[in-house]
User: Fold these one by one.
Assistant:
Number 1:
Amino acid sequence: MARAHAAELASHPEWGVEVVGFLSERPGVRLDNVDGGPVLGSIDDLARILGERVVDEVHFAVSRRTLERLDGPLGLCDEQGIGVRIVLNQLHRLNSQLYLDRVGGVPVLTLASSPQDPVSLILKRAMDVAVSLVALLISAPLFILPSAFVIRLTSSGPVVFRQKRVGRNGRLFTLYKLRTMKADAERLKESLEARNEVDGPAFKMKNDPRVTGVGRILRKLSIDELPQLWNVLRGDMSLVGPRPPLPAEVAKYERWQRRRLSMRPGITCIWQVSGRSDVGFNRWMEMDLEYIDNWSLGWI
């Protein structure tokens, strides 16, 4: 493991890391030099070496069994203010980011597949609340109430469509939209499954016969989505994030696709913003994961 770590450091001179030397995991065992520097001794010699040489950081690239014996060496470095990095080679294939936290004063290594920076997440939530509140106050009299009146006038059924959706980490919530379909749309969906245009556990039709004439206009202008601003205010959703799926769709997800649930769902998602609304189901899932993995305040 140490050789692989040394090779990685050597291949990136721009990192500015100069290797002083190596220590053997096995006390009392002398090894020949390895590529990248000399073997200065074993872990038991660490105290002496730190006293004789200028060392800014100690990298522990050891086997799992040796991790249990690092209390002393870690304490030596901590006592002298020398930085420490522990190479966890067995975790290199994970998608998750690694964070060191403390729980009750005990250091805890945290693996998280979604953004964890508290300041950025607080700012994102503050933006969600501020924008959705202002947008609701403006859109309610201008768009929502007039649209609700037209829906009531032109078709039977409730004005607001309510549907159970899956939110962050599998939490169920009620999503609100202005109704754009016939009142019995959910029942009619079964007869249209054969005409589904999505190659995965979702349903889409460009010319869905269940959509009313008024509904087509509301969808084209995205007015039907405005009640979801209430979901954003409640904390069920965000302005931007992966679209919230139906429970029946999630039940058919492959395991890797469930990771898209690790972030709060949004009114709009990255593939809609980029104008790529006709992507296949797997690519849709991949783009959601790319959004999660690369999210910053610049992504909203």
Number 2:
Amino acid sequence: MANVVATEVFILLVYFACLLLTNFDERVMHTILFVVGVAFPLAFYHHSWSLWLGFDHLIEGLPRESTRQ
């Protein structure tokens, strides 16, 4: 889920940057967004996994050891 949200945010940032900074044709912009939409999740996978594990640790914490007598 972290990878999906990060990818959507990054695609929006690239889209707005292309709109503001360049005057690309619509077909070129769609190609750029497609490449970003495919490449970014693959490159960000390990970072999103560690982000997910960090949030899981913050929410649930470490498992408590059971005391045996």
Number 3:
Amino acid sequence: MDARKFRALVVEERADGAFTRTVRDRYVSDLPAGEVLIRVEYSSLNYKDALSASGNRGVTRSYPHTPGIDAAGIVIESSVESVCPGASVIVTSYDLGMNTPGGFGQYIRVPSGWVVPLPAGLTLKESMILGTAGLTAGLSVLRLMDVVSPGQGPVLVTGATGGVGSVAVAILARLGYEVVAVSGKPDAEPYLQGLGAREVIGRDQLVDQGAKPLLKVRWAGVIDTVGGGMLAAAIKSTQPGGVVTCCGNVASAELNLTVYPFILRGITLAGIDSQGCPMNLRQKVWAKLADAWKFDEMETLCHVSTLEELSGHIEAMLQGQLKGRILVDLID
């Protein structure tokens, strides 16, 4: 038995079917087999974590469980030459925090193929201010840049106060795009303008209440993080030849559309998958996030949380009350 002890958030199912969250001591020997043992210094809270921490079986099959799909820290042990003890590394997505104990614990053990070296230009803390949200936003921006250049017209970002949306707004603004941010939060305008949004609009200014197959052209491109009616309206109002990226379904997984935006305007709907993203593309985006895409407003994106405070932030996320990112500090 490995007697090294560490703290972790543990989600358990009670006899009555309810789920509880407690911070407790665990042992390194409790972790599953894997090639790389990492001492986690920072993690971050994502919507998938909130679902896992609430007993969602579509995310996590069995409990007790420690969520946290993001982790950044120091390699303590490695059985492969490609990952060296002492290295600073990032692990996001794959199965981390879903069915493998995740970043809401001070140690994780994972396959070497999940490990990304921390790029020069980022600290471990900064990497988790970004986390999966930053990777997803970066993948979305990269796809949009294939088609849309700054100066071609406004780029819409939906769910703009969320993690992915906030990072996307900041990156696009840094790259010179005219960003229009959508938010349902009445006090969001100063925050989003501080990240570089040229204009902030409410959801009611976007969602199409009718059944028209096409709407007036408004956007050169779109980064959508919510799905549902806002995604449909964004597609209907994107300029000919434009691209709309899609990475979320918090509003709805349904998409009520005709084919007309695609066959009459040549719109491209591009799905973004950060969980199964190939390693070469993953490293390319992290390198850009550490250099050309790194923005000065990063610290304004996050609120720092301890493990003990995390349960309250999980509830706030589920109720749609959070702005930006929750950074989880696991350093003793």
